[in-house]
Each structure stands twice: as C-alpha cells, then as structure tokens.
Amino acid sequence: MAVNYGSKRTVVGAGYGMRDWLAQRVTAVLMALFTVLVLAQLLFSRGPIGYDTWAGIFSNQFMKTVTFAVIVALAYHVWVGVRDVWMDYVQPVGIRLALHVLTIVWLLGCAGWGVQVLWRL
To answer: How many domains does one find in the chain?
Structure first.
C-alpha cells in the first residue's frame, strides 16, 4: 500500500537549502577576490613588507569599504555554515538555541573587532 503524503508532508529543519548554498558560494567568491586583490597589492609593493605597507594598503577609503564588505560576508558565511552544523548535529532544542546565541555573539564580537582594527588605520 502506497502512502501519499501530499501537502501535509513535514519538512524537518529550516528548509533554507538553495538560498544558503548560494549565499555560501557568493561570499566565498567575494572573499577569494579580496584575497587576490590584497596579494596583488603586496606583490606590486616596493621594499620590505611591514606595518607601513599593510597600513598603506588599507588606508585607502576604497580598500576600507571593500574590507568592511568582506568582514560582513565572512561573518555571514561562517554563520550559515555553523548554523547548519548546529541544526544537523545538536538535537536538544535548548542546547541548539544556546549554541546559536553564543555563535551570533561571538561573530558580532569578531566582526566588531575587525571593523575597529580596520578604521584605526
């Protein structure tokens, strides 16, 4: 006897699927392009690579803006990945919620620290 679940079928999990997959790929590409941009600037810089070279690269307003966008993209990329791990492997809802909250607080702290370092240059 065949069972027809139809529209009453229960979907387990958040069901983000394609949106999260695409977000992970877009943020990864943005971070890869940023890495290539920074490496190109380092390769074409003259003299020893020290604090002055790094500060010079990130002192430009364009680089500060791009770096800020990459920090946000990195935080979102990590959030999607870690959230999926918590949802897949942590079954008790209370523990999963606590891990989600701790992850968000940690990511906001890291992103805030990154922006603070960036805008001090």
So the answer is: 1
Series of mean pLDDT values for 10-residue runs along the chain (121 residues): 58 70 96 97 91 91 96 97 95 96 98 92 60
Q: Is 63 helix (H, G, I), strand (E, B) or coil?
A: helix
The burial class, CB within 10 Å (0-12 / 13-18 / 19+), for 71 is buried
Q: What is the pLDDT of residue 1?
A: 57
Residue 5 forms part of a structural domain: no
> What CATH number has the domain bearing residue 60?
1.20.1300.10
Kindly list the distances between the CA atom of residue 42 and the CA atoms of 21, 38, 112, 121, in Å, as whole numbers in the listed order.
Answer: 32, 6, 25, 17
Cα-to-chain-centroid distance, residue 61: 22
Provide the whole-model pTM.
0.82
